[in-house]
């Protein structure tokens, strides 16, 4: 009887946990769909429709997002902030079409980052980020002040697209280290012609490349490993219980045989 109760409890635990995970995955799938549709509409200049979808996202995220996906407070703040910026960009009268697309893209990448454990969408911007920063280095080498400032402004705007995602996927220390270097070259632009400045740019380039070097090629669904571990736990428990029953049976048999001989 006890053995059956143990198996039943394990089965109920697996069923309940699987149901929670399925609901969580369904919610994130819907959130990602809303974010993606909003981005596509923004690209086509359909700002009012995009705004409506972002508002739907906000309502769903407030009701189910944090509780379903156990987001940390930092992740919650990042997603809330980038969602707010994207929503405001769609109603702004001063932002260009390109700037609106960039802010909604930043929101889309961050939304994906909270749910994707393997190869998040922001990895796809590697060539754009590295190429943009290479233009900064080239302008510095040429000593062209105007070209350097234009290239740096372009890089900063491009980097801002993936920055929210970095805050979600990387450690606070990693992001702060890179951000402090980028802030430094932005604040002291007039020093770009110094030799030490080129070393600083090379270091930033190295750190930017390292961001995209940690792609995990393991595409196995993490839930599969969870099920395997739970199933393995049941098997181990069952075998242990059977062995224990067998041991008790043998012990009683030996004790009974000993009494008969006496």
From TrEMBL:
Q: Which stretch is the leader sequence?
A: 1-22
Q: Which UniProt keywords apply?
A: Membrane, Signal, Transmembrane, Transmembrane helix
One Pfam family named in its UniProt record = Spore_YpjB
Q: What stretches pass through the bilayer?
A: 224-244
Q: InterPro entries of this UniProt entry? A: Spore_YpjB
Record carries keyword Chloroplast: no
- What is the name of this protein? Sporulation protein
What is the source species? Answer: Lederbergia galactosidilytica
């Amino acid at each position: 009887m006890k053995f059956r109760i143990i198996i039943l409890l394990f089965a109920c635990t697996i069923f309940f946990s699987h149901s929670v995970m399925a609901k969580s995955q369904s919610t994130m799938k819907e959130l990602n769909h809303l974010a993606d549709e909003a981005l596509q509409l923004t690209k086509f200049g359909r700002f009012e429709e995009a705004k409506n979808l972002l508002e739907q996202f906000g309502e769903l995220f407030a009701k189910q997002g944090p509780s379903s996906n156990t987001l940390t407070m930092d992740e919650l703040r990042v997603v809330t902030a980038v969602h707010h910026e994207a929503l405001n960009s769609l109603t702004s009268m001063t932002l260009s079409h390109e700037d609106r697309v960039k802010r909604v893209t930043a929101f889309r990448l961050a939304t994906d980052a909270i749910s994707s454990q393997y190869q998040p969408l922001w990895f796809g911007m590697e060539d754009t980020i590295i190429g943009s920063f290479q233009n900064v280095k080239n302008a510095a080498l040429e000593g062209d002040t105007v070209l350097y400032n234009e290239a740096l402004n372009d890089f900063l705007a491009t980097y801002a697209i993936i920055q929210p995602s970095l805050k979600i996927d990387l450690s606070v220390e990693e992001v702060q280290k890179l951000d402090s270097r980028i802030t430094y070259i932005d604040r002291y632009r007039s020093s770009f012609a110094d030799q030490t400045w080129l070393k600083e740019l090379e270091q930033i380039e190295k750190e930017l490349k390292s961001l995209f070097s940690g792609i995990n090629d393991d595409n196995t669904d993490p839930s599969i490993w969870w099920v395997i571990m739970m199933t393995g736990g049941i098997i181990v428990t069952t075998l242990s219980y059977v062995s224990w029953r067998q041991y008790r049976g043998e012990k009683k048999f030996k004790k009974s045989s000993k009494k008969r001989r006496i």
